[in-house]
Fold:
Amino acid sequence: MTLPPLPPDLPEVRGKLIPGAELAPYTWFRVGGPADALFLPADEEDLAAFLKALDPAIPVTVLGVGSNLIVRDGGIPGIVIRLMGKYWGEIEALDGITLSARAGALDLAVAKAAAENGITGLEFLSGIPGSLGGATRTNAGCYGAELRDRLVALHGFRRDGSRAAYRGPGKPGALPEAHFSYRHTDLPEDLIVTRLILEGTGTDDPATISAAITALQARRAETQPIKEKTSGSTFANPDPPGTPDQRSAWKLIDAAGCRGLKVGGAQVSPLHCNFLINTGTATAADLEALGELVRARVLETSGVDLRWEVRRMGRAQRV
Ligand SMILES: Cc1cc2nc3c(=O)[nH]c(=O)nc-3n(C[C@H](O)[C@H](O)[C@H](O)COP(=O)(O)OP(=O)(O)OC[C@H]3O[C@@H](n4cnc5c(N)ncnc54)[C@H](O)[C@@H]3O)c2cc1C
Structure:
C-alpha cells in the first residue's frame, strides 16, 4: 500500500507528528483509512505555533475520541489533530461549583471529578463516552441535560492559530456568546476547542453524587450496546426534545423493519436500533451504505427523512 505524500514543509513540533497514521484505532467504530499526518500537540502553545506556521491550504480536522464519527475508508486528507495525553485531560475544581477542564478530558472523568468535589449537575456526562471537545461540537446530552446547560465559557484556537473564546448561552460577560441547538453548535467550523469552564447546579455529598453516576451507567449498559464497536445514535430524533408527541429515530427505524438489518459487516443493533455496529469486518462504506438503506426505508414507511447525527468525514477511497 502506498501512503499519501506528506504535505511538504510541515512545521516543527514538540508533540508528535505521525505521517500516514491509521485512524481506525482512534474511533469507536474501528473503521477508516489513515490521516496524511496525525498531530498530537504537546500543549496549547505547541498547537498554536503549529497552526500559525502551517500552510493555510492544508486542511485540518480535529478528532475527539471518535465516539460520534465514521472516518471513511480512504482516510482524512491533510492534518488530523487529536488532543490526547495527561496535559489535555487536566481537570481542576475552581471556586464554588465551577470546574476548568481541557478538551481532551473524557466526559466521564469530568463527571467523576465533579462528584469528588461535591458538585452536582454534571452526572449526565458520565453517560456520554466522548471527550469534552467532542461534547462541545455535538452539544452532547442525555437524561435531560446538554453540554450548553453547564457551559460558562470555552477557549480554543482558529485554523490560523489565533485564540478564540466564547461565553456559554445566557452567561454574562464581554465574550461573544456560543449558540447551541439539539446536537449542534454554531461555533466556527475551524474552531479547535481546548478548554472549558463548566458550572454545576449545586452541591451534595460526593458519595451520593457518585452513586447517581453508578446508577446512570448501569441503566445505560442495559439499554445500549456500549461494549460494541458503535458510534451512539446514528440519526438525530426528527423532533427536538420537548416537542409534544416527539417522534424518536429508533421507533421509526424499528417500524421500518430495520432492527438487525445488515450490509456487509455492518448491522443495525438488535438491542437499540438507532445504533449501527461493526460486527468485526465492517468497512466505513458498509456502515454508510447501511445508514442510507435505513434512511430510505424510514422515508418510505413514515415519510420522515432522517438526518445523520454521526459525522462522516474523509475520502471514500485510499489515494
Ligand atoms: C455507546 C455510545 C453512547 C452514546 N450516547 C450519547 C448520548 O447519550 N448523548 C450524546 O449526545 N451522544 C452520545 N454518543 C455520541 C458521542 O459520544 C458524543 O457525540 C460525544 O460528544 C462525541 O465526543 P468525541 O470526543 O468522541 O468526538 P468525536 O466523535 O471524535 O468527534 C465528534 C465531532 O466533534 C469534533 N471535535 C472533537 N474534538 C473537538 C475539539 N477539541 N474542538 C472542536 N471540535 C471537536 C469533531 O471534529 C467531530 O466533528 C454516544 C456514543 C456511543 C458510542
The mean pLDDT is 95.
